[in-house]
Write a structure and sequence with these properties.
Elements: H1 3-8, H2 21-30, H3 34-41, H4 47-60, H5 63-72, H6 82-93
Length: 97
């Protein structure tokens, strides 16, 4: 699946079948369902899951918690907008960079 296809599914009721849990969490975040996104991301023991989890706490405005999860993901908090980072995460999880 490509980024544009993934992004287009945000109007659907459910995430696309066959995507990873990290992408599913990001998908729910993209739909504005922070609670569902967080419920998925907080249980993922992967660096991808930690990256999504970090973004969620950044969106929430909890910089301390976000930085903790960025560290777990092997990343630092970026200086781009939340939307730009959401796009970067989606592209990264979809293997587009």
């Amino acid at each position: 699946m490509k980024f544009d296809q993934f992004n287009a599914t945000l109007t659907d009721e459910l995430p696309p079948p066959g995507i990873t849990l990290s992408l599913a969490a990001l998908w729910y975040a993209g739909k504005g369902d922070w609670e569902q996104a967080h419920a998925i991301a907080q249980d993922l023991p992967t660096t991808d899951g930690a990256w999504v989890h970090a973004w969620l706490h950044r969106q929430e405005g909890d910089a301390w918690n976000a930085n903790y999860w960025y560290q777990r993901a092997g990343r630092t908090m970026p200086g781009v907008s939340l939307q730009e980072e959401w796009d970067q995460i989606a592209r990264g999880l979809l293997g587009e960079f």
